[in-house]
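## Example record

The block below lists the input lines for one assembly entry, exactly as stored, with component labels intact.
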Amino acid sequence: MKPMKTMLVGATALVLLAPAVWAADSTDPIMIPLHNWSSQIVMSHVVGDIFTSMGNSVEYVTTDSQAVYESIRLGDAALEMEVWEGAFGASFDAAVAKGGIHAAGAHNAITREDWWYPAWTKEACPGLPDWKALNDCAALFKTPETGEKGRFLGGPVDWLKHDQEKVDALGMNFAVVNAGSAAAIWAEIGAAEKTKTPIVVFNWTPNFAEAVWPGEFVNFPEWVAGCNEDPSVGPFPDKTYDCGNPANGYLKIAAWDGMKDKWPAAYATLTKVSLTNPQIAEMAKLVDIDGMEPEDAAKAWMDANPDVWKAWLN
Amino acid sequence: MERDARFAGTAKLLLALAVGLMVFKAILPQGMIRPPEWLVLPFADWINVVFSFLQNDLGLMAVTRAFSAVVEWLLNVTANLLYGKSRWPNLGPIPWSVIAVTAFMAGYALKGWRLGLISGGTFVWIALMGQWKWAMETLSVIVVAAPFSVILGLVLAVLAWRSPRFERVLNPILSIAQSLPHFAYMIPVVVFIGVGPKAGAIVTIIFSVPPMIRMTLLGLKKVPEEVIEAAKMSGATRWQLLTRARIPTARSEILIGVNQVIMQCLAMVVLASFIGMPGLGQKLLQLLQSLKIGLSVEIGITIILLAVTLDRLTKAWALRQPMHEAASPSWITRNRLLLIWLTLCAIGFGLAHVFPYFLEVERRQALSVAGPVDALMDHLIRLITPVTLWLRWFLITWVLIPMRDAYLWLPFTAVLVLLAALGWAIGGLRSALICVAYFGLIAASGWWDRAMITVYMVCISVLIAAILAIPLALWGARNPERAGRILLICDTAQTFPSFIYLIPVIMLFGVNDVAVVAAVVVFAAVPLVRYTIEGLRNVPPEMIEAANMSGATQAQLLWHVRLPLALPTMLVGANQSVMFSLFMVIIAAFIGTQDLGQEMQRALSSTDVGKGLVLGFAVAFMGLLTDHLITRWSETRKRALGI
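Predicted structure tokens for the full assembly:
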């Protein structure tokens, strides 16, 4: 009997609250999702602090970075500060197709994801960053599990980066090993740094790694539209995937469709938010290098850059 | 005996058939090497259809959301009290000094100074290390989830005890629930509940309720007839019989169940953060993500301390017999502890009011052991890298790759017949059918290759763990003091959040199977060590005496007396070892594997309920198969030994 009653009370409360739509921002907290990389967490706190200063209440919730688009679509979370074309474009597009979520803005930043090596690798293989030079140095990267081939440490399989296709298309003497998480890639770079072992991994910008370990992306044949689908495009006329990844992917901001009506003022501010690559890297650095807590890092960044964020206010 | 001989005959026949299938693999049709297409059933699609029907057509979503709204309301209350989230009743946060004093008094009242210092000290550590807010975020979920589990467990256990039919339905559900990997639960919860602390609380409740049901049911069944008789004679109604006679008599078992619930809740702290549970687990994942091992070890220590405190407190509560003292002269003497506690709390509130330090220690003022831990790790990694490089090369080239290829080479029909032979040898036709059914379903799920990789990793990990653990346990069991110390290490290794192991093993071995096996071995070894020590210690001294008198040498004593007598207990350890390995292999997907765990991780990030559950069931079936075989074997051994 009792759970039934409590459920009824809960259901009634929900029904009573639902039609309450005001012209001003709702007093319900705006749910901001956090993921497991620091620039996103700091940026979310910056936006959260701005919303709070506008009189809104804000709450943070940690979610999976792929599953978050489903949560936003259903209104469980209100927005997403970093939608990476390469990593989350597919999940985002799928959620957009189902309805309930849209792109509220875009950062003035480019994202790039590709094969990358830390600086000490170049000492062992001076021809870098050219991909042909990398291929000639393949023996430097061999490990017991890859035998005579060099090892390329890719991201998790579900990131769908087509590294194996690239290796096949370019006829490279490399074997692709997929790490299970970003943390696994960092741990490998961290371990390689201690012994200055040459290593080539999947990496992306902007993130904190470029501040910790200086390095470069490998220069593959330039990406052109159709290179992944049409064999005739790209340097090898009979191969698909015979090119690198796009060197300028988007970085968008996503919002729940209902946000516009529920928190109009906050939404208006959100659409104006735009950050650049150096600004995003700076946010990550405050946490990952300077060891600040994300909340404090957000405050520190806002104190240092008032003109940037004040321009977003209405 | 005759029955056993017949079992052995059929088993040999089946074994010969399996070997035949392997030998003639080259001429077998493709459909006998890998499950043919007609056999692979779209379980995932069926489950998804059922779920979407439940979710959209039946409107179950509204019910679950309403339920989660209730949970959320409770969570908001505890969140306000513990860390001052701005929600009703807007009283919090309670200063850390007050909570530490309360923990101390609880420990003191239950068992005395030592426990008081342990529990009070835990909270002082948390506060001084600047982890107060995270720990309170975690606790705010646990203090809601644990009572929920306890009540739900009690109710279900009473129902199962009243109706044998309900028990028959409940039992297999509990077995499957306890062997499903955690990630498999989480996907439906994300669909029905959403993300956030409420989802974390509900996953924790689902995960921690089975042991509570099991222990309560056990307790209720053990209530002696005399107690009931006496209660009936005093004219108790049925309700009174249950609440005044049965449940109080089953108190010890029920409280052990409560203890299990709390331990399971803490085990979920890190995993539940994948679906938005805030607090220590979430912080731990963030820190590991940026390779801050020292700081994450600090959080690991906090989780262990919390587990130890809550474990000791509930155990002390369980073992304390209700006291019926003579009426004391005055109210003050009777409530002395209560008064001391109230005074100390008042002092705590006062201090917090004057000095903010006693309200919350900020991160900047906090102490830290991260620096030395990082330096130690760094030093250790540099020091043993030459060894690990060799080990990595040796294991990969000579053990892991050949073994993995062998497992993948086996025709699936040969595996099924082999399992049937094993089942038949141990438990006759019934066991053989059970084995074939479990693995037949895995074959029909379409994940055969990945399942075989999981099996291979678990086998090699348990094997290595046994090679390391059993000699250690034999050495440890010789001397009670040493045994105590080894068991303490086991407890610590087991409570330490498993994710922290993942980063150091990658740094030592790189992203490959050696790292996975190294991480799994830690977890697989713990139950082996523990139960082997337990088993050896519990060998009756008369037996050893008798063997000594017949002039047995030390080696004979070990091989012919102590080990055989300890074997049934050791088998329980082996069973748990396989279970832990299965869970850990799934988690090790974060290093990078090609097994079921990797697919499960993918299913979680694409919230694919059907796929997640199919993979979860595949893992659960492996666990249930092992459980069945080991239980049957251990029963046979016990009967043979007359225990």
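DSSP finds 27 helices and no strands in chain B. Chain B touches chain A through 60 residues (CB under 8 Å).
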